[in-house]
Amino acid sequence: MSGNKGPFQGIHSSEGLEALAKEQQLPQAGWQQEVQRGHAFGLEAADSIRDRSISTFSRGELPHFAGINTFLKAPYLEDVHQVGCHDVAVMGVPHDSGTTYRPGTRFGPQGIRQMSALYTPYNYEMGVDLREQITLCDVGDIFTLPGSNEKSFDQISKGVAHVFASGAFPIILGGDHSIGFPTLRGICRHLGHHKVGIIHFDRHVDTQETDLDERMHTCPWFHATNMVHAPAHNLVQLGIGGWQVPRPGVKVCRERNINVLTVTDITEMGLDAAARFAVERASDGTDCVYISFDIDCIDAGFVPGTGWPEPGGLLPREALKLLEFVVRNVTVCGLEVVEVSPPYDVSGITALMATRVVCDTMAHLVISGQLPRQGRPSWIQEACAMDVGQAWR
Ligand SMILES: [Mn+2]
């Protein structure tokens, strides 16, 4: 508790007051670098402008409505060979050929980037300033092929493997949920003998072998948990329920001892207990945990821009608190946020929610000391093992 004698002393929560003090401790070097970059690349402002931090061409966060929309206005990294020089790399996977009902998630990465322009890199309660505390880049999108899930999967695995092996923390913006299998396959290629658990936020189990005779967005965890690196008993599913859970997938969850928590389970256990359960199961015998966040785990009223909206999901505050408890208490190796479909969105609120999930995760990684990384984690192997999944057709 700070010694702040603000007007609400003794009335409102200590978090609000503590945040006032935390902000003062944050450096400003990242901001100063951004100003210098603006001047170097975008010219100093016209003579009439008194604030000399402004440049002629917008080259950073400001103004929020201007500029080229990378994620959070992070520098666009055109040369992916340089990705290892960054703590975090955001990449888009504009793939929706695994969709079985409402399409449009191929526009998800651009929709999320656009809404992310609304955010500053600073969070009040957490006292985190991402610009000051980590280096972030946007490597752009994977070159997916809408005519073929399987060829797109190969592209996705290769791209994710490259970023993961570089030591940069991978954040993947989907895309439909079919990408869950190839993203994790990319990570598994560089795990050596190490193992990965999966914490999966969703209304749907996504565990059936095929849907409409192909590997669709209802199928990623059947195939992911066939990989030796990703045991099924380390898969935890949070928020499952409703009228869109296919019975073949339920059978697989039963047969493979997958951990399924409904929304009622989570709210009755309490968010911290549910997160503790998820962390324990996902990390039991594994070296790191992958987080797959399907935006439809949240009640459909908050996320209309998605492929299979389902009422009765988590409230945004519940989902964010669960995410906080999970990320701060487990070794995280990557994050994907999937199923944002801008054509079905309203005022960009679904994309905004996805932005929030990504930014909150980065902040929790900073607070828990996982970012910036002090050297390459031991579970990342330089050698690439292509043969990690079972043969498919
Ligand atoms: Mn879903």
UniProtKB/TrEMBL annotation:
<dbReference type="InterPro" id="IPR020855">
    <property type="entry name" value="Ureohydrolase_Mn_BS"/>
</dbReference>
<dbReference type="GO" id="GO:0046872">
    <property type="term" value="F:metal ion binding"/>
</dbReference>
<keyword id="KW-0378">Hydrolase</keyword>
<dbReference type="GO" id="GO:0008783">
    <property type="term" value="F:agmatinase activity"/>
</dbReference>
<keyword id="KW-0479">Metal-binding</keyword>
<comment type="similarity">
    <text>Belongs to the arginase family. Agmatinase subfamily.</text>
</comment>
<dbReference type="InterPro" id="IPR006035">
    <property type="entry name" value="Ureohydrolase"/>
</dbReference>
<dbReference type="GO" id="GO:0033389">
    <property type="term" value="P:putrescine biosynthetic process from arginine, via agmatine"/>
</dbReference>
<dbReference type="Pfam" id="PF00491">
    <property type="entry name" value="Arginase"/>
</dbReference>
<dbReference type="InterPro" id="IPR023696">
    <property type="entry name" value="Ureohydrolase_dom_sf"/>
</dbReference>
<protein>
    <submittedName>
        <fullName>Arginase/agmatinase/formimionoglutamate hydrolase, arginase family</fullName>
    </submittedName>
</protein>
<dbReference type="InterPro" id="IPR005925">
    <property type="entry name" value="Agmatinase-rel"/>
</dbReference>
